[in-house]
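User: Can you help me understand a structure? I only have the sequence.
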Amino acid sequence: MLKGICKLLLKMGGWTPVGGDLDVKKCIILGAPHTSNWDFVWSWIFYTSVGGKAYVMVKQELFKGILKPILKGMGGIPVDRKRGANMIMQVADEFKKRDKMQLAIALEGTRKPTARWKAGFHAIAKMADVPVYFGIFDYGQKRIGVVEEFELSDDARADLIRAKRFYKDVVGKYPENFTVGKLD
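Assistant: Let's start by predicting it. Here is the structure, written out as tokens:
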């Protein structure tokens, strides 16, 4: 029933779904441009509409009171963001603990304009030995979903530039908050 409600919500919101639930047990789904909290809401609705469950990293401080079961139910994984590289190991360990985990990661790491995108996804994918896919929430064309697999190299910086090139024409809810920065 929830799947049907989410399909209806996407239609009412004017969204065209792209792709569906991935036929892999474990992976990372990149998302950009991340300019609004609505990106999470629409992404959750999309993924629920196709019968999937995408996990997301959420700062552990939010897992208190009534928010704790809500966040867990929506795929939230508490992480200590102050621990930097250790956070990458926390998430890689989560992949090892679970039979199925499709983790959504916003490349910019913030909803504010930033040319400095995060390459943590690369380290997590390599450490956990999981594939990476491009996901979009394109407010310009009202397309949302998982687009294609992103084959990683051993060069995180080069892969980040390739990701920026992929997303350069995708429009966020607040376009002024999205920048890809240098593409070389």
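Now, to help you interpret it: The longest strand covers residues 143-150. The chain has one domain: 2-177. Let me know which part you'd like to focus on.
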